[in-house]
Design brief:
Elements: E1 2-6, E2 9-12, E3 15-18, E4 22-26, H1 41-54, H2 56-69, H3 76-99, E5 108-110, H4 115-121, H5 145-180, H6 184-188, H7 193-206, H8 208-215, H9 219-235, E6 241-247, E7 251-257, H10 259-262, H11 264-281, H12 303-307, H13 326-353, H14 361-381, E8 387-389, H15 392-400, H16 405-420, H17 422-429, H18 433-452, H19 463-485, H20 495-505, H21 508-522, H22 527-530, H23 536-541, H24 543-556, H25 558-564, H26 571-575, H27 582-585, H28 606-614
Antiparallel strand pairs: 1-4, 2-3, 5-8, 6-7
Length: about 625
Amino acid sequence: MTIHLNMTTHVEDDVVMEDDVVMEMDDFKRLHYRVNENPPIYLSLLFGIQQSMLSLSKSLTVCILVAELVCSDKDEHMKTKLFSSTLLMSGICTLLQSTVGIRLPLYQGPSAAYVVPLLALAPLKEWRCPDLTNFGPANFSLTNSSDVDALYREHVIIPKIQLLSGSLLVAGCIHTIVGLTGMVGAVLRFIGPLTVVPAITLIGIFMVKALVKFISTQWGVGLLTTITAVVLSLYLAPYNTPIPCWGRKRGFFIKKYPLHKVFSILIAMMVGWIVSLILTEMGVFTSDPNIRQYLARTDARTHIITEIGWFSIPYPGQFGPPNMNVGVFASFLIATFLSIIDSLGDYYACAKVCQEPAPPSHAVNRGICMEGVASTLSGAMGIGHATSTIGGNIGAIGVTRVASRRVFQAVGLIYIVFGIVGKIGAFFISIPYSVLGGIQIVNFGILFGVVLSNLSLVDLNSVRNVSILGISLMMGLMIPHWTQHNPDTAATGSEQADSVIRSLLSNPAIIGGGLACFLDNTCPGTLKERGLVGWQVDMVEDTEATDDEMASNKDAFSNEVQNKGDNTTEEGTVYDIPFLPLSWKTSRWFKKIPILPGYKQRRGGGIFKKCQKHN
């Protein structure tokens, strides 16, 4: 769908006037399958495999970052277990979200907002990993190194996982309550673009260290992977790939499809992997496991495929009872609010791509609630990170023109199978680090570029706004840097209090985002100046605007709906929970529950609305 903005100007009384912006939709392309339509099972599986392949590299990268934090970076069995658990949780969460959550075709995967707390903790002395060679009793020798590994796992790796599990579990419960009670609008009253942009920009800057660890194993292969993805997804984006096809009626014919764009990440990974295989067989890469370049070899971790069992079912509490760390919890709580804001944007973007009305408040609340349930389950599983909506798969819907809910339910089932079949997780763990580093430059680069685009809502000619941005970014860089190089600064006399303070001060998203939020809500400024007029709070709370948008969508796509016959863009058919009895849906008591159909977000009241009227 191509949208043109036509703006005309004319002169009245020596004053230049601008007419209203008119959006014209041309080159309208009908979706092959709308949200409520079900492709044949074989096509659903095929489309599901295509979508599931898009985010595997990101899931693997986050899993490896968690493994490095808990000191299991050299324990391939533990990494495989963490990755299999991540895949299983992604599958369960995707299935829940598309079936009983917001019910849009959305993929739930590892959230980037939860990565930075992990990176911020790594340099702290209480999270540093002891040397494996010097670990354990003195009478342990190299002949019983397996006993040392088991002791190291029991006393170092497992306790760290338990700390992450308990902290994430509590943050997930709060996430659930935000959706269950309809508090999304209240949260967004105080968090706008001037808070989100510095917080997530600092996340991007902070992630450079982690990405360098991957790509530095072999810069040439990593950059080749990045360049391949960029060329396929950007430079060749206007073109379609000619694909030879054959049909009974048409015979042999050429079909043009943007295959290279849809699978740009996957093709780039294959190119990098093949080049790594060639260089490994030619002996270009070192065979010394103690040298970092060894991780660029294709056979560096292939032994895990034969060692791991075929089937392994992750379960809650698999790493023991969860523990709690206040500093980690505070970091995860900040990440939770950032994740909520990111998901809200994805909900509305997905509705537009799927040519459906904007989601009503009960569907939004239910989606956020389901993500909170998923985060709680992730904490119980011990995977060390939460799941949230991944925007990259929404873009793939626009390219493939397949928006069927059934496809993403198939994605959920595919990831569940991936998580249960242990050898599949072990196979993906063997991907060379250099290839992963090159792919993540593209993945995270696009993510943070989209975040920066939120500044278009803000008045950047305002001294107030640029001052808030600059000061929050500087403090978000300086204080974590200072804390990491001065670990003994916090000396309250309590080791637990010192640990909490160091955890908070070393997290750039907490420092920069917290300061930006405080300044944005205390320094005088109009809502338009702050960028709140076009922010998500209007989409969630302004029911009139939502109704207008729904009406506009229905008018624009009415002809398409009639042609499709049994499908409809009516709000209820897309976002309603199908198995609820009609008597429940019409009950006046159920209309008061924020996550059930019929609920209407209350309007008016509150300090924020008063300020909005005043400004």
